[in-house]
Amino acid sequence: MAGSLLLLYVHGLPKVFHFSEELTRIEDPFGMGPYFSLIPAIIAEVICPLFIILGFGTRIACLPIIGVLLVAMLFVHPGWSIAEGQFGWLLLIIFTTLAITGPGKWCIGAGKQREWRHGIDQ
């Protein structure tokens, strides 16, 4: 959850609150235009962290985040040293681990997930 809060606060909310300004400065590594580069970033940095914080669809919510982080680290900032890109690489490690392991039993949605799984098993 801490990784989601950091991603939301540091990257996601500024993109939403300063949308027009972000359109003028967002990198466009694949030539799709700023709008089609900014919207996936907002989904990955605002919507997905909220799902993870709430404990719903955690593994699936990690996938867009991982995708945006990989694009940022490999295509937008390929020349960054480990020191310059450490925040991005750490987030990539956190969300990849979360995608593999799942949210755990302490997440908010854990009770619903257990109920759903037990209903299937019966």
Automatic annotation (TrEMBL):
It is found in: Cell membrane. One of its GO terms (cellular component) is plasma membrane. InterPro entries: DoxX, DoxX-like_oxidoreductase. Keywords: Cell membrane, Membrane, Transmembrane, Transmembrane helix. It is a multi-pass membrane protein. Its main location: membrane. The chain crosses the membrane at residues 36-54, 61-80, 86-108. It comes from the Bacteria. Belongs to the DoxX family. This is DoxX family protein. It comes from Buttiauxella agrestis ATCC 33320.
